[in-house]
């Protein structure tokens, strides 16, 4: 029971564990409220959680985990069809929700239990083993319905402890974040992480630079955010000295869920003297790599493998790269205690995801520097462009384009070309729609920074790029992507 959250069973005192806006719970109150949830769900196999960015969601998930039951976080913004699939696939026996939360009709047949954060009950006698499921998190599948990644308690504990090692994360840290609570980033790292350390989390509910400045200037030590949030911070910094001062005083600024453009890295560092560090993970693996707190915060990289994680890059035929030169692109494969157990009810998909020697095929393409630093260049399915005999990663071209003053947003894809096999296509949201940069100007800009064969052969202008809840660009939604 105390395996994941020792601070709940020790003398918790009156230290604040969770704060959402004006509402907060001490460790003692969290133990009591989560205990009530745990006793309510004890003996179930899986329980759904309506994962709004509220105190009740955190209490619900902690209570479910204390009972040794698996939590299935539901995205409140999911459509009826997707929710229907998740419910049919995971078969939860009830749904936990905040009082007053309006649930869609597709959930009507499921028993509902409202979470009362004032309730009091002893901690349940959960007898879960480390291989037992903690969470079933549904991945946003690019093809077909989402798959439920079964994440064992062992993966949650080992990932959070590895991050504690990499980030020197302790119970003295206070984390500020405004991330959704149905993803690994916001829920596992951003809520369960502080609670495992015995620290505190302050959730903004809705992300805003004012909230970040307020919390970091009043005791918060760490910020977790996604690139779209850091972009908003970078845009606000020139006119907001209070924000710059607050960020300068933070112990750690961490970005994840997608690559942080180098341009935003540099703008934040110039204004605050602090460098954002990046880490790399996914639903199925939790966290794989990170820039360490005591290491070099090298812009554009996701650092080195975390303790316990084996990482290799492989060629298309599965042959592992033997030397890392910072240039050769390979697919990332990982093995370690951070991995998920299976895709729920999908034995074929589970088997296909792993190699014969137990490595998970991430589908992410990267290069690795001689000193072990990993730089991700994109997804195998959408970001690896084979042009003129070269393997080109879309990510580095996107970074180069974002350094052009006339470019606000950029995405890069490949499309068939009779001569080159594939040609590089740049999708641009111009800084000034009335006078966008020309295609030749952008091609020359990329060629000077990278190499001539990486220059875009076509430029398409858009008003905005399609993005998901975590700010990732959805390239399959581009008009001809």
UniProtKB/TrEMBL annotation:
Tell me the superkingdom of the source: Bacteria
> Which SUPFAM superfamilies does the record cross-reference, listed alphabetically?
Acetyl-CoA synthetase-like (SSF56801)
Matching entries from Pfam families are given as: AMP-binding (PF00501), AMP-binding_C (PF13193)
The UniProt entry, under PROSITE patterns, shows: AMP_BINDING
Q: Which GO biological-process labels does this protein carry? A: fatty acid metabolic process
Which intervals hold domain AMP-dependent synthetase/ligase?
A: 11-344
Domain (AMP-binding enzyme C-terminal): give its ranges: 396-472
Q: Which residues form a coiled coil?
A: none
GO terms assigned for molecular function: medium-chain fatty acid-CoA ligase activity
The family note in this entry says:
Belongs to the ATP-dependent AMP-binding enzyme family.
Instruction: Supply the name of the protein.
Output: Acyl-CoA synthetase
What is the native source organism of this protein? Answer: Streptomyces naganishii JCM 4654
The beginning of the lineage is:
Bacteria, Bacillati, Actinomycetota, Actinomycetes, Kitasatosporales
């Amino acid at each position: 029971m105390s395996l994941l959250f020792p601070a709940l069973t020790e003398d918790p005192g009156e230290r604040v564990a969770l704060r959402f806006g004006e509402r907060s719970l001490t460790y003692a109150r969290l133990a009591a409220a989560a205990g009530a949830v745990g006793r309510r769900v004890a003996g179930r196999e899986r329980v759904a959680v309506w994962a709004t960015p509220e105190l009740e969601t955190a209490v619900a998930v902690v209570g479910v985990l204390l009972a040794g039951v698996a939590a299935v976080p539901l995205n409140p913004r999911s459509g009826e069809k997707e929710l229907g699939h998740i419910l049919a696939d995971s078969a939860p026996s009830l749904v936990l929700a905040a009082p007053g939360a309006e649930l869609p009709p597709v959930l009507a047949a499921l028993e509902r239990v409202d979470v009362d954060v004032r309730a009091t009950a002893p901690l349940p006698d959960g007898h879960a083993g480390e291989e037992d499921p903690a969470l079933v998190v549904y991945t946003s599948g690019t093809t077909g319905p989402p798959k439920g990644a079964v994440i064992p308690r062992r993966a949650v504990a080992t990932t959070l402890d590895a991050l504690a090692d990499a980030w020197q994360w302790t119970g003295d840290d206070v984390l500020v974040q405004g991330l959704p609570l149905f993803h690994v980033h916001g829920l596992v790292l951003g809520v369960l992480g502080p609670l495992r350390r015995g620290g505190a989390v302050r959730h903004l509910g809705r992300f805003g630079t004012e909230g970040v400045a307020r919390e970091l200037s009043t005791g918060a030590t760490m910020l977790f955010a996604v690139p779209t949030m850091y972009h908003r911070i970078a845009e606000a910094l020139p006119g907001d000295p209070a924000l710059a001062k607050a960020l300068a005083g933070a112990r750690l600024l961490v970005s994840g869920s997608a690559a942080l453009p180098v341009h935003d890295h540099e703008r934040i560092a110039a204004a605050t003297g602090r460098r954002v560090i990046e880490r790399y993970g996914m639903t199925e693996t939790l966290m794989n790599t990170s820039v360490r707190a005591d290491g070099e915060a090298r812009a554009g990289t996701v650092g080195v493998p975390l303790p316990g994680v084996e990482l290799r890059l492989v060629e298309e035929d599965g042959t592992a790269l033997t030397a890392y030169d910072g240039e050769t692109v390979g697919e990332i494969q990982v093995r370690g205690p951070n991995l998920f157990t299976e895709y729920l009810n999908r034995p074929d998909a589970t088997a296909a995801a792993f190699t014969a020697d137990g490595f998970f095929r991430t589908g992410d393409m990267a290069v690795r520097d001689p000193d072990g630093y990993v730089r991700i260049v994109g997804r195998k399915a959408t970001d690896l462009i084979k042009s003129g005999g070269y393997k080109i990663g879309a990510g580095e071209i996107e970074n180069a384009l974002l350094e052009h003053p006339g470019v606000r947003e950029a995405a890069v894809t490949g499309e068939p070309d009779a001569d080159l096999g594939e040609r590089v296509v740049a999708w641009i949201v111009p800084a000034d729609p009335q006078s966008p940069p020309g295609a030749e100007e952008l091609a020359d800009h990329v060629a000077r920074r990278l190499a001539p064969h990486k220059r875009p052969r076509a430029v398409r202008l858009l008003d905005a790029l399609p993005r998901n809840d975590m700010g990732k660009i959805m390239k399959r939604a581009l008009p001809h992507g």
